[in-house]
Amino acid sequence: MSEQKKEFKGVWIPKHIIEDEDLSCIEVILYSEISCFDVCFKSNKELAKRLRLKNKKSVSYVLKKLKDKGYIKEVGFNGRSKFWKAKLDKPTSNCGSRGNEIVTSEASKSLPIDKTLEKTENIAETSSAERNHIFKENSKKEDKSNLKASKKKETFNCKTEIGKMMKDKQKHIEIIGCFFNAKKYTFPDKISLQAQLKRNLRPARELARYDNSKFSKAYGCVKKKFPEEWTLNTMLKYIPGI
Q1: pLDDT surpasses 60 at 201
Q2: With 50 as the cut, is the pLDDT of residue 238 above it?
Q3: What is the reported pTM?
Q4: Per-residue pLDDT reduced to its tens digit, 100-137
């Protein structure tokens, strides 16, 4: 993936992060780095380099701790790296920060709140018809809210988009779609998918010149030699000799 540009926000760090005595300086800095992006695509290796850490496993530990405390959340995975998004609101929890579910203030906004109960406490003397009216009004609001939420979820479906690519009339797009599917890539949004698509355009166009027989043999060869690490560029190196 091409180098991701970030929006510079200075050295501002939320108060609850600074005041969390359970966080080390490295953990605070890593949170700040992730919060510079809408979605952070950087690999553990890149983050380790950014933090001047020699071992990328240290980054994995820090990311897990920040996730367990509810400060960041995982929003995608491309087969090699996880995508992270920082939560700016302070998480609230009745239990410990490790190994337990944390309900953040952001999540609490989406929790169903029964407004009807609040209203019915004050209308004991009202008629049955008035009570029914209140229930209906709240029901309509909930239906509208659920409809909006479902529309948002349907705006981008990674599996559907990759499926469309696999059926594309342009052979190089079809090849990239099959590659994403074989590697089980997942993308949080269309921008991330398009970025990876652009990165694979050149090798895909070159591979599209070969017939299906050679392509299939090249795929089998690289899959056997490099079961996890193979890419379209790897196939492009091996296919001429087949």
Answers
A1: yes
A2: yes
A3: 0.42
A4: 343 344 444 444 444 444 444 454 444 556 656 666 66
- In this prediction, residue 157 carries a pLDDT of 93
State in Å, rounded, how far the first CA of the chain is from the last one: 28
How many alpha carbons fall within 13 Å on the CB side of residue 224? 7
* Burial class of residue 229, CB neighbours in 10 A (0-12, 13-18, 19+): exposed
User: Residue 156's Cα: distance from chain center in Å?
Assistant: 12
Thinking of the domain 15-109, which architecture would CATH place it in? Orthogonal Bundle (1.10)
Question: For 44-70, what is each residue's pLDDT tens digit?
Answer: 888 888 888 877 778 888 899 999 989
**DSSP helix/strand/coil, 49:** helix
Distant-in-sequence, close-in-space partners of 16: CB < 8 Å, separation ≥ 6:
90
Q: Kindly give the interhelix angle for 158-166 and 190-199, rounded to the nearest 10 degrees.
A: 40
Up-side HSE of residue 175: CA atoms within 13 Å toward CB?
25
Taking the C-alpha atoms of residue 75 and residue 87, their distance in angstroms, rounded to an integer, is 12
Are 17 and 31 contacting, i.e. CB atoms less than 8 angstroms apart?
Answer: yes
For 109, the token pair is 């906004």
Pairing of strands 91-92, 103-104: antiparallel
